[in-house]
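Entry type: protein chain
Record version: 2
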Amino acid sequence: MLIYGINPVAEAIKAGRVREIRVAERADERLQRLLDEAAHRGVRVRRVSRDVLDSESRRGAHQGVVADVERPAEVTLADLATGAGEPALIVVLDEVEDPQNVGAILRTVDAAGATGVVRQTRRAAALDGAAAKASAGAVNYVRVADVVNIARSLEELKKAGVWTLGLDAEAEMPYYEWDLTLPTAVVVGAEGHGLRRLVRERCDQVVSIPMLGHVGSLNVSAATAIVLYEAVRQRRSRSRGRPRS
């Protein structure tokens, strides 16, 4: 698995996942700090030309460094449903294929302290390259369960006690009316067509984000961030003994 960019590679080194990094000559303090950390942790470093990095990153913004990293340990739906002392807060990606969106969602999942992500093995963005860079290194920490069928996975989550909450611009209930202190899986669909019909029907509830301006919807990563941080707000209010508002 190959990733590129200073932040993603630096975080992968900290997480102990890097096998080798390849760098091109570049006068950059951030890159030098990365190389110092790699040396400290015994990571192999090879000097190559920028042409090699351009080719390996498919001309992505590699910032002078690419890395071979170990794939993360396998995660199951049961692992995510169990949580880690807190009610599960999971994001389910229904055919979200844009690597920039996937990376941004991973970054928010990590920032919000959510449990993890569920994604389908086909019609899903790979978690290397552009997605890893967009995640700013969060790909190294967020637990991701790969599944064959999203609709069936929602049923499994429900059996495990997790409520499934679909995000759809046409839904009548606003997202903040749902009790996000409950174990919840937030289900988001791809740009354009949104949730597939069968996936939408499997959700316990479908909610929307009120749009007060001229455009009809938000980018999927922005919408996911709004709902996750509403969950953070509700859970903090509940833990402090204040009624949810």
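Comment: The domain at 77-239 is CATH 3.40.1280.10 (Alpha/beta knot).
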